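Q: Two folds, back to back.
A: First:
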Amino acid sequence: MTAALLAALCAFAPASASAMSAATGESDLSPRLAELAKPALRSAPPGKQAAALSLADGLAREGKRVLVDVRFDRGALTGPADLRAAGAKIVSVSRRYQTITVAAKPTDLRRIGALPRVDGVTEVFAPILRGADCGGSVRSEGDTHLNAAAARSAFGIDGSGVTVGILSDSFDRKGGAPTHAAGDVATGDLPGPGSPCGSTSPVNVLGDPVSSGEDEGRAMAQIVHDLAPGTSLSFATAFGGQFSFANNIRALRAGGADVIVDDVFYPDEPFFQDGPIAVAVNEVTAAGAAYFSAAGNDNLVDSEDRDIASWEAPKFRDSGDCPAELKAIVATESCMDFDPDEAESDDTFGITVSPGATLSIDLQWAEPWFGVKTDLDAFLLDAAGKPLEEEVNSEKFLVGGVDENVKDTEQPLEFFQWTNDNKEKNADVQLAINLCASTCNPDASDAEFPRLKVVLLQNGTGVSATEYPESAPPDVVGPTVFGHAGTVSAVAVGAIAYDSTTAPEEYSSRGPLSHYFGPVVTASPAAAIASPQEISKPDLVATDGGANTFFGKFFAGARRFFGTSAAAPHAAAVAALMKQANPSLSYAALRSALATTADAVGEFKPEAVGAGRINAFDAVSSVALPPVVSITQRPPALGRERRPSISFTANRPVAFSCTIDGGGLQPCNSPFLPAVPLADGLHGFAVQGVDAAGRTGASETVSFRIDTKRPRTFFKQKPRKTLRTQRRRAKAVFRFGSNEPDASFVCKVDGGFLRFCKPRMVRRFPLGKHLISVRARDAAGNVDRSPAVYRFEVKRGR
C-alpha cells in the first residue's frame, strides 16, 4: 500500500488538566498550539515537538511554518491584512465558514491568537492519502482488468471531449522521483507537447505548491491517461487544509472538469455529518460533475479474519470509574464503559500494536460542528494501566488528545498518534475515554451522552488485535469509510488487486456509515436530521497495483501503485469513457450504469465491495448512444455509372448492412458496389451499423438517377447552303437542338478544336466552304454518338 499517513497536526495531552486550562486562557490558541508556542517547545527539533504533541509523524508544515485555521466571529474577509501583519502567510479564505487558513511560525502564534475578532486558532490536520493511447512506456493492468481496453475498441472512444480533474498531494515536486512530468510526456505516459501518442494538450496544473509531496497526483494522471487517453487532465492540490481542498474542488469544476477524482482525506472530517469538503462535492455534483473519491485504506483484519479497524457505541456509557493511575495524574471524572454487557464494566479498550508501528486514534462523537456540548478526552495506557508519556526537555507529556471541544475547537474530535518503538515485539496498550464535564465544560448536562466512534487510521497495517473484535449489539465493529468519501453524492471507490477478481484488498475500507446531522454549510451548527441516515459505502471497487513509471515499490516487474488512491482514478477514467459515449449522460445515470453492470467479487457483500468490480465495457455499452453512420462518398444525383461506388463510415466499430432500392439488408463493407449493374432510372441507397452493444444506427437514404441513353442532336436553325456577300465574310446563325431538353452542346467549326457552344451560335464566316459538327451531351454525361453535320459555302455576289 503506497497511500501513506503523512505528517498530521494532531491532538496532544498536556501534563495535567490544570496546565491545559492555563494554556488556553492566555489567548485564543488551541491547547496544542498554545503548547507549541511556548519557548521550550517551539525551539525543539520537529521530532521532539511531535512527540510532545502525541504526533508520531510530525506537524503539518510549510517549511518552518505550521498550518492553522483562524476562525473569526465576523468579518473574516477583512482579516488577511491583520494576519499578514502578525507574520502569517495566507493559504485560503472561507467567507462561508468565517475562517482563514494560514501558514504561521510558532513564534507568531500568540500574536495571531490575540488579533481582534479572532474567535479561535486551531491546527490543521494534515491530509491522509488513500493510499499511455499508444499506451506510453507503461500501462496499468487496470486497462484490461476493468475491460476499458475492450470498451475503447468496441465503441471507438478514448475520453475525447471530457475533462478529468485530479486532487492529490502534488504533481511534479518530488526531487528524487525516478521520472518527472516532462519525461512522462516524452514516453507517452502523460499528455503534452511532444507526446509520441499525439496527445499534445498538457495537464492543466492549477497549483502545485506542496514541496514535500510524493507526486501521487501525477501517478493518478497516468492511470486516467492509460484508460482514457483522449481526456483533458487538470490537477489541483488537496493539501492546505479542508477549506482549501473544498475551494479547489470548486475551482476544478469552474475550469471545466466533467469528472473529478481525489485520494485524500483529513482525520478531522466529521464522521456523523457532511463536512466542508463533502459540501463542495455536493455542490459540483449538483452542477453535473461526476465525483469519485478513494474509499480509504483503513480496514484491519485480525488473525481470525475479523474486520477490527473501528469500534462504535450508541452512547457514552459511564463505567463508574477511570483507571487508577490515570486518575492520579489527570482529573478524570467518568470513563467510557467499553463492554456492551450491562452486567459488566470495562474502562479501557485493549489494542495490540505491531513492532515499530504507529497507532493513530481518531475519536469522534455525534454532535454537529459549531454545536458541540460534550467534551471527551482520550488517553493511552500501557498493558499495566500506566498512562504513556513522552519526555521533551525534561518535561513529560501524556499521550492522548484532550482538546477543549466545547469552548475551543467546536468539533467533536480527538485525534492522536503513538509509536511502538520496540522493533521486535508487539505492544499491548489501552485506550481510555473520559467525559470531561465539570472541569472542561461546567455547563454540560449529565444527560449529554452522545454516540461515539473510534477509527484506527492504520493504512491497513500496524494493529493485529483489539479487545472487542466483533460487533456485539448495540456496539458496531469494523466500518471505516467516513468524511467526503461517505457523502451520498460521491462515488467511494474500494480497491481490488490487478490480478484478482474474487476478493477486495484487505486494507480497502469497509462501510456503511450513518449521518445524524445536516451538512456543515456555515459556521452555525446544523440541525439534527429526523432519523439517522445510513449510507451504503463503498459504492464500487476498481483496480489497484497497476504499473506506472515512478510511483510505488518495484514489484512483479514494474513500479506498482497500490491502495484506493489508485482505484479511484481507474473509476474516473471509465466515467470519462462513458461521458464521451453519451455526452448528455447525467451523473445519476452514470452511477446507476456503473452499479448495475459491475461484476460480483466472490461472495463479498456491499459493505466490502459495493456493487462490485467496475466493468467498463458493460458500463459503456449500457449508456452509449446509437452509432452514427454517415455516407462519405455518394453517387452523383444523376450519372451514367451503373455500378456506382458508395463509401460510408461510423463513429465506432460496427457491422454494416446495406440496402438498395428498398431491398433487404445485406452485410457490406465500404466502399459498396452493386452486385449487378443498375438499370436506368431512380435509385435509393442506405446503410446501417450495429455496434458491439447491439445498438443500431442508420444513414440517410441517398437518392440518385442513372441515365445511360445517348441524346440525339439536330439543327433547329441553319443558314442556306450558299451564302452570298459583297464583303469578305458573311454572318450565319445556328440553333442546336436535342431530344433531351437539358442537353449541352459540343461544336467543331471547320478544322478547329472541339468546344462547348451555346444552343444559339452567331458567327461570321469567310469566303469558302465550311462544315459545322455538333454533338448533344445530356445531364448524365451521355454524348450523341453521331454528330449533326451541316455543310455550306460563302460566295461573293448578291
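A: Second:
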Amino acid sequence: MKKATLSFGILTLLVVFFIGGNRIQAAEDRAELTDEQANRISRQEEIKEFLNCRIVPKLGNLWDYTFEPGKFPELDWDRPYFVENVMGKFPLKARWFNSELNEVSAPEEPGRYAFYLEAKTPNGKVIRRASTVYCRPKNWFGWSEKPKAFLDFIPVDGVDRAVWKEHEDAIATFAGRTVLLSILRQQEGAILMSYLHEMKTSGDKPALTDTPIIRDHDYHLALKRKILGVENKYPLLKMPKRMEKNKATVLHEGMEEEAGFKPGTREKIREVCQSWFEESDEPFIVLVARHGAVIVHEPFGEWTWGQLTRNTPTEMASLTKLVTGLMFAQFVDQGLINIDDPVGKFLPDYPVTGGKAITLRHCFTHTTGLYGHEEWGGMHNPWLDNVVANGLEYLTPGKVHEYNGMGYDLAGKVMEIVSGKSIFRLMRENLFDPLEMNNTTLEEDLGFSCFSTAEDFAKFGQLLLNKGSYGELEFFSPQTFEKILPKLLSEYYPDIDKEWGIGITWMRQAHPEAGKNGIPKDATVLSRNVIGHGSATSAILRVDLENDLVIAQSRRRGGKAYDEYLAKFLMAIEDGLK
C-alpha cells in the first residue's frame, strides 16, 4: 500500500494551504499571505519535520542498536542540529529497563533492554520516546558471520516459482546480508535478536501470538503502563460471551432454495466471475451467502506463480479499518471505553475538553485532522500517541473530514493501554481465534495490512448481520451494533456533512440503469442498507442488512474493467434474489 504524507489538517487562513500538495501552488499561495501567516505555515512544516526525528543510540553509527555488557550507549536525536533549531535546546535523560521491566543502571547480561526517554522543550512540549535495544554476548562479532536467509517466494513482476528456484542460493546469500545489517544497525534487528535470545524449546508449536512483533509490543506496553502507573487501573477486557440459547447464524454450505435464491443463480454468478477474470487477468476468490447459506465459494483464475485456493490470503487493505472497528466494539460493549470519550482520558499529553480534545469518534470517523497511514512508525512506535500530541496545535478535531489511518492507530493505542495487551494479540485472541479465522493475520497497522481470505472476511459480514454474534459467541450486543453503524457526522460536528460509522461505511452501488426506463435516479443495486468498507486492493465486503446477504471477495488488485464487472457481479446476485 502506498503511504500518503501526513499533515495536520487545514489551517484556517485567508488562503487554504494543503500540506503535501502542489508545491508550485503552495509557493504562489504563500506570496499572498501576510508575514505572520507565512511564518505559521513555515512553523507547521518544521514541526511536521521534527515529528519524524528519532532518538537513536549514539555509538558512532546512529543505526546501531546492539552493544556489549558493561555500559549503555549514549542517546541523541538522529538530526540533533535540526531539533535544536526547531524546538530549542533541552537535555535528554533516559531511563533503562531490562527484560523483566526492572530499572537498571548498566547492562550486566546479554538480552533485551529498552530505554524510555522523557524530556520537556523550552516551550513546554513533553517528549516521550522508547525503543528496544539488544545487549549482545561479549566477543560476539556479528559482522564476521555470513548467514543465508531462505525467503518464501515473492512474486515480483510476474516472476514464477521456477525462475525463483533457479536463483534461490543467490537470493538467500543477499537476503542473509540484509538480515545481518538489520541485526547490527536497525531497531528491527534488536527486536529480532531479543526474540531469539528469549526463545525456549517447549516441544509444542509456537502460538500464533508468539512472534517478534507481538512480544515486543507486549513488552513496551507493559513498560508504558508501568511508567504511567496504570497497571491495575482498568477492568480486564473479557472474551466473547458464550450463549447457551438462541445461537446465531453461522456460514455453511447451502443450496439456492435454502438461501432464498432463484434456481440457476449460482451458475450465473460463476459465469460473471469467470468473464471478470478473463477480462482483467486478475484472479480472485468469491463468497456469496444468504441466511448463512453459502451458494458460491471458489477461486476464479490463477496466478502465474502458483495455485490460488480458497485459503490463499491476500492484502485486504483498508477493510482492516472495519476489523479495527469490530475490535473496538467489544470495549464499548463492556463499558471500558465510550465512543465519545476523549483520548486524553486514557493517554497523557492530550486535553479532555476544548477545541483540541480528540475523541474516539474522531479517530474512527476521520475527523481528527490527521492524514496518512503508518506515519512515525505507526503502531510499532510505543509512544506514537505522544508524537501525535506534539503536533496537536495544528490539528482541527471535528472541523475537517480527511480519510486516514492514523486515527485508527491512535485508537489502537487507547485500546492497548486499557487492555494491557498488544492490539495485535487482542485481534488474535478476541476476534480471529474465536471466529476460527485460520487464514487471517494482522501485525502491521490498524488502517490497512490485514491479510485474509473471502471466507474469513465473510464471517465478519455474518457477525454484522447477526448484530454482534456468531454461532454460540456474542462479541457485542445489538445495542452496540447500532452504535457503530454510520451516523450523520453533522449531529456531532456541524461543519461536516457526511455519514460515517466506527470502521463501517455505507457501500451503496449505483444501479447501472438508474434514471432510465422508469428506474429512479437514486436506485441502487441491492438495498440501500449495505454496509462494509472500501479497499485499495479492491477486496470486497458488503453486508446487505435488508436482504440478509454477505458478499466477500479477496484479490491483490482491481485490474481492468473492475467497476464494470463489479456492477455485473452485484446485478447477478440481485437478479437471483427471490
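Q: And?
A: The first helix runs from residue 23 to 31.
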